[in-house]
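ok so for the tutorial part 2 we go from a plain amino acid sequence to predicted structure tokens. step 1 is just haveing the sequence, like this:
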Amino acid sequence: MTLRAASWFLLAGLTGGGCAYYNGLYNANRLAGEATRATREGRPGEARSKWEAAAIKAESVAIRYPHSKYHDDALLLQGRALLESSRCDQASVPLVAVAEASPDHRIRRQAALLLGECRVLLGDPERARQVLGPLVESEDAATARAARVWRARASLAQADYAGALHDLTGMADTSAVFDRAAALIGLGRAPEAAAALIGLAPGGYDERRWPAALESLGAVAPEEAATLVDSLVRRGNLSSGQRARLLLADAIRWEQARRQDRFEARLRQVTDLAPDSAEGRIAGVHLSVLQLRQLRDPEGLPELADRLDRLGQDGGPAAALAAPPLAILKRVIAPDAERFPDLRRFLDAEVVRDSLGAPLLAAALFRRIQRDFSASPLAPKALLAAAMLEPDSAAVFAAAVDSLYPDSPYRIAFRQGDAEFFTALEDSLRALAGRDEEPSVRQEPRGRQPPVTPGQPRPGNRTPRLPTGRGVPEP
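step 2 — the prediction. this is what the tokens look like for a chain of 475 residues:
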């Protein structure tokens, strides 16, 4: 039995008598019972709607019959219903009133317990501990147990992991296992946390708490978290969507741990399990980007762009994830040839290298600049950029620069290690690129202003003259 269910049964049997307000309170309790059943049967939307209706009914009874002997019962039910419908800020008002003024000790106790829970959920752990502290010593075992759990959750919010673990020691309630695991992780005892969660895995799946527990465990022990994910995915009581969400979250954890092999393996599990789901499309985008980062031949870009476009057609997170790489690919596939195409293609290659993390593809694009614009002042720089990305071919590219562009300031800076000289060259290029991106006062179709002439110095910078190179075949 959950903590809230236990609290609810303590409210049962309160609606006797034949007074005029009886029907209103009876209906409020009936709605609360239906909401509890809907939650148990996995219908959260219906449950929330029922709790909201119960709160309205209970509030109506409390307002219309302030002198009724069931007035405090109505306020207590109103507070609980508001809490259950995620409106703790409003629930605190009736709960405080009952907890402080009700002549019925049992009602005060239950109101204080719900108020402590609300304050934890509202991010006020210190006041929550103040309210819950006395209840931990309650003669009522169910109240004391629930108060210990919620005080532990308040302690977790304050990073008091030892205090939380003390409150949870010996706790049989399965819902407290997640909190115990969080305390153990906070104390650096990840294997014990994993063992506690493994013991919980065969039970009912709580989609509100398992993902957060796995995220916390995975941050310090990704292998243990992955083992738990495998255990959960093998169960028969999870939907394909729940499995896909668990696998995708584990994939992201492996990416953060810089384990690309595990990252890719998890992504393929997601696409095999639920390819048409939101998670499947997100995994498909990630896999496409991984393929892009391993690509050597620009001829494969149109196919990757089409795939990213298809994955993002339904909108949502997959579309947002696919949009940045897709925009870059479209620029590379169909570059703007109207103005300074060598510069634009050079900048696109840099974006492929820096933003997409695709060094092999960027190297191929840099080589194409030298092939297609051999007389461009940027040709030697493009070859040197390719050399830095392909160490095995670096000597060949450097030799080509020495032979074909002996007077290039890029070659001189590279060979002499002149950082100041090279910085001046880079500033000139950035100035040119920045000027090209300024809004046009003439409102040209692309909304851009024509850039300055290549090699034009920016005031205050010592910019060498860039020589004209000679055309060569692609190395």
